[in-house]
Protein backbone atom coordinates (compact mmCIF):
# COMPACT_ATOMS: atom_id res chain seq x y z
CA UNK A 1 0.00 0.00 0.00
CA UNK A 2 1.43 3.41 -0.94
CA UNK A 3 1.28 6.15 1.72
CA UNK A 4 -1.45 7.95 -0.22
CA UNK A 5 -3.71 4.90 0.22
CA UNK A 6 -3.52 4.94 4.01
CA UNK A 7 -7.11 4.87 5.29
CA UNK A 8 -7.83 5.90 8.91
CA UNK A 9 -10.09 3.45 10.76
CA UNK A 10 -13.62 4.89 11.05
CA UNK A 11 -15.16 4.73 14.54
CA UNK A 12 -18.33 5.75 16.30
CA UNK A 13 -18.23 8.97 18.35
CA UNK A 14 -20.43 8.64 21.44
CA UNK A 15 -20.60 11.21 24.22
CA UNK A 16 -17.16 12.58 23.34
CA UNK A 17 -15.48 9.15 23.01
CA UNK A 18 -14.21 7.43 19.87
CA UNK A 19 -15.23 3.78 20.12
CA UNK A 20 -15.96 0.65 18.08
CA UNK A 21 -19.24 0.24 19.98
CA UNK A 22 -20.62 -2.90 21.53
CA UNK A 23 -22.27 -4.79 18.65
CA UNK A 24 -19.11 -6.55 17.45
CA UNK A 25 -20.43 -6.11 13.90
CA UNK A 26 -18.48 -4.36 11.13
CA UNK A 27 -18.82 -3.85 7.43
CA UNK A 28 -16.10 -3.44 4.82
CA UNK A 29 -15.43 -0.06 3.15
CA UNK A 30 -14.41 -0.24 -0.53
CA UNK A 31 -12.26 2.04 -2.65
CA UNK A 32 -14.54 2.53 -5.70
CA UNK A 33 -11.52 3.09 -7.96
CA UNK A 34 -10.23 -0.44 -7.29
CA UNK A 35 -13.21 -2.28 -5.77
CA UNK A 36 -10.86 -3.41 -2.98
CA UNK A 37 -11.52 -3.29 0.76
CA UNK A 38 -9.67 -0.40 2.43
CA UNK A 39 -11.10 -0.63 5.93
CA UNK A 40 -14.02 -1.58 8.11
CA UNK A 41 -16.71 0.49 9.76
CA UNK A 42 -18.20 -0.61 13.10
CA UNK A 43 -21.97 -0.93 13.50
CA UNK A 44 -23.73 0.68 16.46
CA UNK A 45 -25.78 -1.60 18.74
CA UNK A 46 -29.09 -0.58 20.34
CA UNK A 47 -27.10 0.19 23.52
CA UNK A 48 -24.73 2.45 21.52
CA UNK A 49 -27.69 4.32 20.05
CA UNK A 50 -29.16 4.76 23.50
CA UNK A 51 -25.84 6.14 24.71
CA UNK A 52 -25.74 8.56 21.75
CA UNK A 53 -29.28 9.83 22.34
CA UNK A 54 -28.74 10.13 26.09
CA UNK A 55 -25.59 12.16 25.47
CA UNK A 56 -27.33 14.45 22.96
CA UNK A 57 -30.22 15.01 25.38
CA UNK A 58 -27.87 15.66 28.32
CA UNK A 59 -25.69 18.08 26.35
CA UNK A 60 -28.60 20.04 24.87
CA UNK A 61 -29.52 22.50 27.69
CA UNK A 62 -25.97 23.80 28.18
CA UNK A 63 -25.27 24.02 24.43
CA UNK A 64 -28.51 25.92 23.84
CA UNK A 65 -27.81 28.20 26.82
CA UNK A 66 -24.40 29.19 25.43
CA UNK A 67 -26.18 31.37 22.92
CA UNK A 68 -25.06 32.13 19.39
CA UNK A 69 -22.22 34.27 20.73
CA UNK A 70 -20.85 31.41 22.83
CA UNK A 71 -21.20 28.75 20.15
CA UNK A 72 -19.76 30.83 17.31
CA UNK A 73 -16.06 30.73 18.31
CA UNK A 74 -16.10 26.91 18.46
CA UNK A 75 -17.61 26.71 14.97
CA UNK A 76 -15.10 29.26 13.62
CA UNK A 77 -12.20 27.27 15.12
CA UNK A 78 -13.54 24.04 13.60
CA UNK A 79 -13.71 25.70 10.21
CA UNK A 80 -10.09 26.84 10.48
CA UNK A 81 -9.00 23.31 11.45
CA UNK A 82 -10.92 21.74 8.56
CA UNK A 83 -9.29 24.21 6.13
CA UNK A 84 -5.82 23.44 7.56
CA UNK A 85 -6.51 19.71 7.14
CA UNK A 86 -8.28 20.04 3.77
CA UNK A 87 -5.65 18.16 1.74
CA UNK A 88 -5.80 15.13 4.05
CA UNK A 89 -9.60 15.17 4.38
CA UNK A 90 -9.92 15.44 0.58
CA UNK A 91 -7.59 12.47 0.10
CA UNK A 92 -9.73 10.37 2.46
CA UNK A 93 -12.94 11.48 0.70
CA UNK A 94 -11.55 10.47 -2.69
CA UNK A 95 -10.30 7.12 -1.37
CA UNK A 96 -13.75 6.15 -0.12
CA UNK A 97 -16.05 7.99 -2.56
CA UNK A 98 -14.01 8.21 -5.78
CA UNK A 99 -14.37 11.80 -7.01
CA UNK A 100 -11.21 13.56 -8.30
CA UNK A 101 -9.16 14.82 -5.37
CA UNK A 102 -9.32 18.43 -6.64
CA UNK A 103 -13.14 18.15 -6.54
CA UNK A 104 -12.93 16.71 -3.00
CA UNK A 105 -10.66 19.54 -1.88
CA UNK A 106 -12.98 22.18 -3.34
CA UNK A 107 -15.88 20.46 -1.55
CA UNK A 108 -14.04 20.43 1.80
CA UNK A 109 -13.15 24.13 1.52
CA UNK A 110 -16.64 25.15 0.44
CA UNK A 111 -18.31 22.99 3.10
CA UNK A 112 -16.04 24.36 5.86
CA UNK A 113 -17.48 27.79 5.06
CA UNK A 114 -20.95 26.66 6.16
CA UNK A 115 -19.65 26.63 9.76
CA UNK A 116 -18.72 30.31 9.82
CA UNK A 117 -21.73 31.32 7.73
CA UNK A 118 -24.09 29.72 10.27
CA UNK A 119 -22.04 30.86 13.28
CA UNK A 120 -22.77 34.41 12.09
CA UNK A 121 -26.31 33.81 10.78
CA UNK A 122 -27.32 32.48 14.23
CA UNK A 123 -26.43 35.91 15.66
CA UNK A 124 -29.11 37.33 13.38
CA UNK A 125 -31.92 34.94 14.37
CA UNK A 126 -33.89 37.98 15.47
CA UNK A 127 -37.25 37.73 17.12
CA UNK A 128 -39.70 40.63 16.96
CA UNK A 129 -41.72 42.95 19.17
CA UNK A 130 -45.30 43.36 18.03
CA UNK A 131 -46.93 46.68 18.95
CA UNK A 132 -50.60 46.63 19.90
CA UNK A 133 -52.06 46.55 23.39
CA UNK A 134 -49.80 48.92 25.43
CA UNK A 135 -50.34 46.84 28.55
CA UNK A 136 -49.03 43.67 26.94
CA UNK A 137 -45.52 43.03 25.65
CA UNK A 138 -45.99 40.74 22.66
CA UNK A 139 -42.81 39.18 21.30
CA UNK A 140 -41.70 36.35 19.04
CA UNK A 141 -38.49 34.51 19.91
CA UNK A 142 -36.68 31.59 18.33
CA UNK A 143 -35.58 28.54 20.27
CA UNK A 144 -33.58 25.47 19.13
CA UNK A 145 -35.82 22.44 18.51
CA UNK A 146 -33.64 20.09 20.61
CA UNK A 147 -31.67 16.93 19.83
CA UNK A 148 -31.81 16.08 16.11
CA UNK A 149 -31.46 12.71 14.35
CA UNK A 150 -29.69 13.40 11.04
CA UNK A 151 -29.14 10.97 8.15
CA UNK A 152 -26.52 11.76 5.51
CA UNK A 153 -25.67 9.83 2.28
CA UNK A 154 -22.39 9.17 0.49
CA UNK A 155 -22.24 11.55 -2.48
CA UNK A 156 -20.73 14.56 -0.66
CA UNK A 157 -18.57 13.03 2.09
CA UNK A 158 -17.63 16.46 3.51
CA UNK A 159 -20.45 18.68 2.28
CA UNK A 160 -23.22 16.28 3.35
CA UNK A 161 -22.48 16.18 7.08
CA UNK A 162 -21.59 19.89 7.27
CA UNK A 163 -24.89 20.92 5.66
CA UNK A 164 -26.63 19.31 8.64
CA UNK A 165 -24.09 19.99 11.40
CA UNK A 166 -23.50 23.70 10.72
CA UNK A 167 -27.05 25.09 10.94
CA UNK A 168 -28.12 22.65 13.67
CA UNK A 169 -25.13 23.40 15.90
CA UNK A 170 -25.32 27.15 15.29
CA UNK A 171 -29.03 27.08 16.17
CA UNK A 172 -28.21 25.43 19.52
CA UNK A 173 -29.29 21.87 18.71
CA UNK A 174 -27.37 18.71 19.51
CA UNK A 175 -27.25 15.77 17.10
CA UNK A 176 -27.04 12.06 16.60
CA UNK A 177 -25.85 11.81 13.02
CA UNK A 178 -26.01 8.58 11.02
CA UNK A 179 -23.61 8.93 8.21
CA UNK A 180 -23.16 6.68 5.17
CA UNK A 181 -21.42 3.40 5.97
CA UNK A 182 -19.82 3.58 2.49
CA UNK A 183 -17.89 6.82 3.11
CA UNK A 184 -17.42 6.93 6.89
CA UNK A 185 -13.89 8.27 7.45
CA UNK A 186 -14.49 11.76 6.02
CA UNK A 187 -17.24 12.37 8.58
CA UNK A 188 -14.91 11.15 11.33
CA UNK A 189 -12.27 13.69 10.21
CA UNK A 190 -14.82 16.51 10.27
CA UNK A 191 -16.17 15.58 13.68
CA UNK A 192 -12.61 15.26 14.98
CA UNK A 193 -12.07 18.91 13.94
CA UNK A 194 -15.18 19.94 15.88
CA UNK A 195 -13.93 17.98 18.90
CA UNK A 196 -10.47 19.62 18.77
CA UNK A 197 -12.15 23.02 18.35
CA UNK A 198 -13.77 22.55 21.76
CA UNK A 199 -17.23 21.11 21.08
CA UNK A 200 -18.49 19.79 24.45
CA UNK A 201 -18.98 15.99 24.75
CA UNK A 202 -22.40 14.78 23.65
CA UNK A 203 -23.20 17.75 21.40
CA UNK A 204 -22.46 15.66 18.29
CA UNK A 205 -22.65 11.87 18.25
CA UNK A 206 -21.72 9.90 15.13
CA UNK A 207 -23.13 6.44 14.40
CA UNK A 208 -23.00 3.89 11.60
CA UNK A 209 -24.81 0.59 11.25
CA UNK A 210 -27.96 -0.99 9.92
CA UNK A 211 -29.85 2.00 8.40
CA UNK A 212 -33.45 0.81 9.02
CA UNK A 213 -32.62 -0.27 12.60
CA UNK A 214 -30.94 3.08 13.33
CA UNK A 215 -33.67 5.23 11.80
CA UNK A 216 -36.47 3.31 13.54
CA UNK A 217 -34.70 3.48 16.91
CA UNK A 218 -33.67 7.13 16.75
CA UNK A 219 -36.89 8.53 15.32
CA UNK A 220 -39.09 6.71 17.86
CA UNK A 221 -36.98 7.91 20.81
CA UNK A 222 -38.86 10.69 22.64
CA UNK A 223 -35.59 12.47 23.43
CA UNK A 224 -35.11 13.13 19.68
CA UNK A 225 -37.12 16.19 18.64
CA UNK A 226 -36.46 16.51 14.90
CA UNK A 227 -35.44 14.38 11.89
CA UNK A 228 -33.24 15.63 9.03
CA UNK A 229 -32.66 13.32 6.06
CA UNK A 230 -30.85 13.52 2.72
CA UNK A 231 -31.19 10.60 0.31
CA UNK A 232 -33.52 8.94 -2.15
CA UNK A 233 -37.26 9.58 -2.48
CA UNK A 234 -38.30 6.00 -1.50
CA UNK A 235 -36.20 6.01 1.70
CA UNK A 236 -37.24 9.62 2.41
CA UNK A 237 -40.88 8.54 2.37
CA UNK A 238 -40.12 5.82 4.92
CA UNK A 239 -38.26 8.26 7.18
CA UNK A 240 -40.94 10.97 6.89
CA UNK A 241 -43.54 8.29 7.69
CA UNK A 242 -41.68 7.27 10.85
CA UNK A 243 -41.40 10.93 11.90
CA UNK A 244 -45.12 11.51 11.21
CA UNK A 245 -46.08 8.60 13.48
CA UNK A 246 -44.52 10.43 16.42
CA UNK A 247 -45.38 13.95 15.13
CA UNK A 248 -41.77 15.11 14.76
CA UNK A 249 -40.79 17.85 12.34
CA UNK A 250 -38.74 16.56 9.42
CA UNK A 251 -36.42 18.15 6.90
CA UNK A 252 -36.37 16.08 3.71
CA UNK A 253 -33.73 16.70 1.03
CA UNK A 254 -34.55 14.01 -1.52
CA UNK A 255 -33.75 13.18 -5.10
CA UNK A 256 -34.27 15.28 -8.19
CA UNK A 257 -34.39 14.83 -11.96
CA UNK A 258 -33.52 18.31 -13.13
CA UNK A 259 -34.72 19.40 -16.58
CA UNK A 260 -32.54 21.66 -18.73
CA UNK A 261 -34.41 23.69 -21.33
CA UNK A 262 -32.18 25.08 -24.07
CA UNK A 263 -34.25 27.76 -25.82
CA UNK A 264 -34.07 28.70 -29.49
CA UNK A 265 -32.14 31.92 -28.75
CA UNK A 266 -29.43 30.27 -26.58
CA UNK A 267 -25.78 29.81 -27.56
CA UNK A 268 -25.77 26.02 -28.07
CA UNK A 269 -22.04 25.55 -27.50
CA UNK A 270 -21.94 27.60 -24.29
CA UNK A 271 -25.10 25.85 -23.05
CA UNK A 272 -23.53 22.47 -23.83
CA UNK A 273 -20.27 23.32 -22.08
CA UNK A 274 -22.00 24.55 -18.92
CA UNK A 275 -24.54 21.71 -18.95
CA UNK A 276 -21.76 19.12 -19.27
CA UNK A 277 -19.88 20.69 -16.33
CA UNK A 278 -22.98 20.21 -14.16
CA UNK A 279 -23.88 16.81 -15.59
CA UNK A 280 -20.51 15.07 -15.15
CA UNK A 281 -19.40 16.67 -11.84
CA UNK A 282 -19.13 13.95 -9.19
CA UNK A 283 -19.83 11.46 -12.03
CA UNK A 284 -23.43 12.69 -12.08
CA UNK A 285 -24.09 11.60 -8.49
CA UNK A 286 -25.64 14.88 -7.39
CA UNK A 287 -29.31 15.39 -6.48
CA UNK A 288 -29.40 18.69 -8.43
CA UNK A 289 -27.48 17.37 -11.48
CA UNK A 290 -28.96 18.42 -14.84
CA UNK A 291 -30.43 15.15 -16.02
CA UNK A 292 -33.08 15.68 -18.75
CA UNK A 293 -32.02 17.87 -21.66
CA UNK A 294 -34.81 19.44 -23.73
CA UNK A 295 -33.21 21.28 -26.65
CA UNK A 296 -34.93 23.45 -29.25
CA UNK A 297 -34.95 21.58 -32.56
CA UNK A 298 -33.05 24.35 -34.39
CA UNK A 299 -30.06 23.95 -32.01
CA UNK A 300 -30.27 20.25 -31.32
CA UNK A 301 -27.46 18.97 -33.54
CA UNK A 302 -24.98 21.69 -32.52
CA UNK A 303 -25.83 21.22 -28.83
CA UNK A 304 -25.51 17.42 -29.08
CA UNK A 305 -22.18 17.65 -30.89
CA UNK A 306 -20.78 20.03 -28.24
CA UNK A 307 -21.98 17.88 -25.28
CA UNK A 308 -20.42 14.81 -26.90
CA UNK A 309 -17.12 16.70 -27.29
CA UNK A 310 -17.22 17.65 -23.59
CA UNK A 311 -18.00 14.06 -22.56
CA UNK A 312 -15.14 12.69 -24.65
CA UNK A 313 -12.72 15.26 -23.26
CA UNK A 314 -13.20 13.98 -19.70
CA UNK A 315 -10.32 11.95 -18.28
CA UNK A 316 -11.92 9.12 -16.33
CA UNK A 317 -9.75 7.37 -13.74
CA UNK A 318 -8.66 6.97 -10.15
CA UNK A 319 -9.49 10.25 -8.42
CA UNK A 320 -6.07 10.31 -6.73
CA UNK A 321 -4.24 10.32 -10.10
CA UNK A 322 -3.08 13.59 -11.69
CA UNK A 323 -5.24 15.06 -14.42
CA UNK A 324 -8.31 12.87 -13.78
CA UNK A 325 -11.53 14.88 -14.24
CA UNK A 326 -14.13 12.17 -13.54
CA UNK A 327 -13.79 9.37 -11.00
CA UNK A 328 -15.62 6.07 -10.65
CA UNK A 329 -19.21 5.64 -9.54
CA UNK A 330 -19.31 5.43 -5.76
CA UNK A 331 -20.65 1.87 -5.61
CA UNK A 332 -21.57 -1.07 -7.88
CA UNK A 333 -25.31 -0.26 -7.54
CA UNK A 334 -24.79 2.83 -9.70
CA UNK A 335 -23.05 0.80 -12.45
CA UNK A 336 -25.99 -1.63 -12.55
CA UNK A 337 -28.43 1.30 -12.71
CA UNK A 338 -26.51 2.99 -15.57
CA UNK A 339 -26.32 -0.25 -17.59
CA UNK A 340 -30.03 -0.88 -17.09
CA UNK A 341 -31.10 2.68 -17.99
CA UNK A 342 -28.91 2.86 -21.12
CA UNK A 343 -30.16 -0.54 -22.35
CA UNK A 344 -33.76 0.47 -21.71
CA UNK A 345 -33.37 3.79 -23.60
CA UNK A 346 -31.72 2.08 -26.59
CA UNK A 347 -34.40 -0.62 -26.68
CA UNK A 348 -37.00 2.16 -26.89
CA UNK A 349 -35.32 3.80 -29.88
CA UNK A 350 -32.80 6.26 -28.41
CA UNK A 351 -29.51 6.80 -30.27
CA UNK A 352 -26.17 6.34 -28.48
CA UNK A 353 -23.91 9.32 -29.30
CA UNK A 354 -21.01 8.40 -27.01
CA UNK A 355 -20.16 6.12 -24.08
CA UNK A 356 -22.76 3.65 -22.88
CA UNK A 357 -20.78 1.03 -21.01
CA UNK A 358 -18.72 0.14 -17.99
CA UNK A 359 -14.96 0.74 -18.26
CA UNK A 360 -12.80 -2.31 -17.43
CA UNK A 361 -13.66 -4.63 -14.57
CA UNK A 362 -11.61 -3.09 -11.78
CA UNK A 363 -13.43 -0.44 -9.77
CA UNK A 364 -16.78 1.05 -10.71
CA UNK A 365 -16.08 3.18 -13.79
CA UNK A 366 -18.73 4.11 -16.35
CA UNK A 367 -18.19 6.02 -19.58
CA UNK A 368 -19.52 9.59 -19.80
CA UNK A 369 -22.56 8.89 -21.96
CA UNK A 370 -24.83 10.92 -24.24
CA UNK A 371 -28.11 9.56 -25.63
CA UNK A 372 -30.18 11.40 -28.27
CA UNK A 373 -33.90 11.33 -29.04
CA UNK A 374 -34.74 9.43 -25.86
CA UNK A 375 -38.50 8.77 -25.71
CA UNK A 376 -40.32 10.20 -22.68
CA UNK A 377 -41.40 6.74 -21.52
CA UNK A 378 -37.77 5.54 -21.14
CA UNK A 379 -36.81 4.83 -17.53
CA UNK A 380 -34.04 7.44 -17.64
CA UNK A 381 -36.60 10.19 -18.38
CA UNK A 382 -38.73 9.10 -15.41
CA UNK A 383 -36.26 8.09 -12.68
CA UNK A 384 -33.23 10.12 -11.63
CA UNK A 385 -30.13 8.55 -13.21
CA UNK A 386 -27.65 9.62 -10.49
CA UNK A 387 -24.81 8.90 -12.90
CA UNK A 388 -22.90 10.24 -15.92
CA UNK A 389 -25.58 9.71 -18.56
CA UNK A 390 -27.12 12.68 -20.41
CA UNK A 391 -30.41 11.96 -22.24
CA UNK A 392 -31.29 14.56 -24.92
CA UNK A 393 -34.66 15.31 -26.49
CA UNK A 394 -35.71 17.95 -29.00
CA UNK A 395 -38.70 20.31 -28.73
CA UNK A 396 -40.47 22.78 -31.02
CA UNK A 397 -42.77 24.62 -28.60
CA UNK A 398 -41.60 26.12 -25.29
CA UNK A 399 -44.93 25.55 -23.50
CA UNK A 400 -44.78 21.86 -24.40
CA UNK A 401 -41.18 21.70 -23.16
CA UNK A 402 -42.19 23.32 -19.85
CA UNK A 403 -45.03 20.82 -19.46
CA UNK A 404 -42.59 17.97 -20.08
CA UNK A 405 -40.06 19.49 -17.66
CA UNK A 406 -42.68 19.47 -14.91
CA UNK A 407 -44.10 16.04 -15.74
CA UNK A 408 -42.27 14.00 -13.10
CA UNK A 409 -42.93 13.61 -9.38
CA UNK A 410 -39.59 15.39 -8.68
CA UNK A 411 -39.23 19.14 -8.08
CA UNK A 412 -35.69 19.86 -6.92
CA UNK A 413 -33.61 21.76 -9.52
CA UNK A 414 -34.30 23.10 -13.02
CA UNK A 415 -32.14 24.89 -15.58
CA UNK A 416 -32.77 27.13 -18.56
CA UNK A 417 -30.56 28.64 -21.25
CA UNK A 418 -31.79 31.74 -23.08
CA UNK A 419 -30.52 35.22 -24.02
CA UNK A 420 -33.94 36.78 -23.41
CA UNK A 421 -34.79 38.16 -19.97
CA UNK A 422 -38.48 37.72 -20.74
CA UNK A 423 -38.03 34.04 -21.66
CA UNK A 424 -35.89 33.53 -18.54
CA UNK A 425 -38.70 34.92 -16.38
CA UNK A 426 -41.19 32.65 -18.17
CA UNK A 427 -39.02 29.65 -17.25
CA UNK A 428 -38.61 30.83 -13.65
CA UNK A 429 -42.36 31.26 -13.26
CA UNK A 430 -43.16 27.94 -14.92
CA UNK A 431 -40.62 25.53 -13.40
CA UNK A 432 -42.01 23.50 -10.49
CA UNK A 433 -38.73 23.28 -8.58
CA UNK A 434 -37.01 24.84 -5.58
CA UNK A 435 -33.58 25.53 -7.15
CA UNK A 436 -33.47 27.40 -10.46
CA UNK A 437 -30.44 28.44 -12.50
CA UNK A 438 -30.51 30.40 -15.74
CA UNK A 439 -27.55 30.19 -18.14
CA UNK A 440 -25.42 28.06 -15.84
CA UNK A 441 -25.51 24.90 -13.73
CA UNK A 442 -23.47 26.07 -10.74
CA UNK A 443 -23.87 24.57 -7.29
CA UNK A 444 -25.39 25.68 -4.01
CA UNK A 445 -24.27 28.69 -1.96
CA UNK A 446 -24.31 29.18 1.80
CA UNK A 447 -26.45 32.31 1.69
CA UNK A 448 -29.48 30.97 -0.19
CA UNK A 449 -31.91 28.12 0.48
CA UNK A 450 -31.84 24.75 -1.31
CA UNK A 451 -34.68 22.28 -1.26
CA UNK A 452 -37.47 20.73 -3.24
CA UNK A 453 -41.18 20.61 -3.90
CA UNK A 454 -43.36 17.63 -4.80
CA UNK A 455 -41.62 14.32 -4.01
CA UNK A 456 -38.19 16.00 -3.79
CA UNK A 457 -38.96 16.82 -0.18
CA UNK A 458 -39.76 19.68 2.14
CA UNK A 459 -37.86 22.19 4.24
CA UNK A 460 -34.73 24.07 3.25
CA UNK A 461 -30.98 23.88 3.83
CA UNK A 462 -28.83 26.98 3.25
CA UNK A 463 -29.51 30.63 3.97
CA UNK A 464 -31.51 31.92 6.93
CA UNK A 465 -34.22 29.38 6.01
CA UNK A 466 -31.69 26.61 6.75
CA UNK A 467 -31.09 27.98 10.24
CA UNK A 468 -34.83 28.31 10.90
CA UNK A 469 -35.27 24.62 9.99
CA UNK A 470 -33.67 23.93 13.40
CA UNK A 471 -35.51 26.66 15.35
CA UNK A 472 -39.11 26.97 16.44
CA UNK A 473 -40.98 30.20 17.08
CA UNK A 474 -42.22 31.00 20.59
CA UNK A 475 -44.98 33.61 20.80
CA UNK A 476 -44.68 35.32 24.18
CA UNK A 477 -47.48 37.55 25.41
CA UNK A 478 -46.58 39.30 28.68
CA UNK A 479 -49.25 41.36 30.58
CA UNK A 480 -47.36 44.20 32.21
CA UNK A 481 -49.94 45.23 34.83
P1 LIG B 1 -30.55 4.35 -0.80
O1 LIG B 1 -31.80 5.09 -0.92
O2 LIG B 1 -30.59 2.92 -0.40
O3 LIG B 1 -29.58 5.06 0.29
C1 LIG B 1 -29.36 6.45 0.30
C2 LIG B 1 -28.88 6.81 1.69
O4 LIG B 1 -29.92 6.57 2.61
C3 LIG B 1 -27.69 5.98 2.18
O5 LIG B 1 -26.79 6.83 2.87
C4 LIG B 1 -28.31 4.96 3.12
O6 LIG B 1 -27.42 4.59 4.17
C5 LIG B 1 -29.48 5.71 3.68
N1 LIG B 1 -30.58 4.83 4.04
C6 LIG B 1 -31.11 3.82 3.32
N2 LIG B 1 -32.13 3.24 3.97
C7 LIG B 1 -32.27 3.93 5.13
C8 LIG B 1 -33.15 3.82 6.25
N3 LIG B 1 -34.14 2.92 6.27
N4 LIG B 1 -32.98 4.68 7.27
C9 LIG B 1 -32.01 5.62 7.25
N5 LIG B 1 -31.16 5.77 6.22
C10 LIG B 1 -31.28 4.93 5.19
O7 LIG B 1 -29.82 4.50 -2.15
P2 LIG B 1 -28.33 4.36 -2.63
O8 LIG B 1 -28.21 3.17 -3.52
O9 LIG B 1 -27.32 4.52 -1.55
O10 LIG B 1 -28.28 5.66 -3.51
C11 LIG B 1 -28.98 5.68 -4.73
C12 LIG B 1 -30.09 6.64 -4.76
O11 LIG B 1 -30.12 7.46 -3.60
C13 LIG B 1 -29.89 7.58 -5.91
O12 LIG B 1 -30.57 7.11 -7.02
C14 LIG B 1 -30.44 8.86 -5.41
O13 LIG B 1 -31.82 8.88 -5.70
C15 LIG B 1 -30.38 8.79 -3.94
N6 LIG B 1 -29.40 9.66 -3.30
C16 LIG B 1 -29.75 10.94 -3.16
C17 LIG B 1 -28.86 11.80 -2.58
C18 LIG B 1 -29.20 13.25 -2.42
O14 LIG B 1 -28.28 14.05 -2.29
N7 LIG B 1 -30.47 13.62 -2.38
C19 LIG B 1 -27.64 11.34 -2.14
C20 LIG B 1 -27.32 9.99 -2.29
C21 LIG B 1 -28.24 9.14 -2.86
Automatic annotation (TrEMBL):
InterPro entries: Ald_DH/histidinol_DH, Ald_DH_C, Ald_DH_CS_CYS, Ald_DH_N, Aldehyde_DH_dom, Aldehyde_DH_Superfamily. CDD domains: ALDH_F5_SSADH_GabD. Keywords: Oxidoreductase. GO terms for molecular function: succinate-semialdehyde dehydrogenase (NAD+) activity. Residues 1-26, 443-468 are annotated as: Disordered. Its EC number is 1.2.1.16. Residues 18-476 form the Aldehyde dehydrogenase domain. GO terms for biological process: gamma-aminobutyric acid catabolic process. PANTHER family: SUCCINATE-SEMIALDEHYDE DEHYDROGENASE, MITOCHONDRIAL. Belongs to the aldehyde dehydrogenase family. This is NAD-dependent aldehyde dehydrogenase.
Amino acid sequence: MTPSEHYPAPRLFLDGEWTDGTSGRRQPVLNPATGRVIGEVPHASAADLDRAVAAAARAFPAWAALGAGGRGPILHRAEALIRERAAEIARIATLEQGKPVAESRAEVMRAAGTLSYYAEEARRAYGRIIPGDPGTLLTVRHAPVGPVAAFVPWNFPAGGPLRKLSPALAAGCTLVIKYSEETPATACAIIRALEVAGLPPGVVNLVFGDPPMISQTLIADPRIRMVAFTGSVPVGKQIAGLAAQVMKPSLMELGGHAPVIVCADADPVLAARRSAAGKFANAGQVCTAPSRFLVHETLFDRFAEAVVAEARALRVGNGLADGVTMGPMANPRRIEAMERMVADALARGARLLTGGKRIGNEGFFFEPTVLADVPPEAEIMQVEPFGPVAPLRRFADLDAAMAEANATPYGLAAYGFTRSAATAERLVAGFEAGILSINHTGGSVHEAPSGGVKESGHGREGGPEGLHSYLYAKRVSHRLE
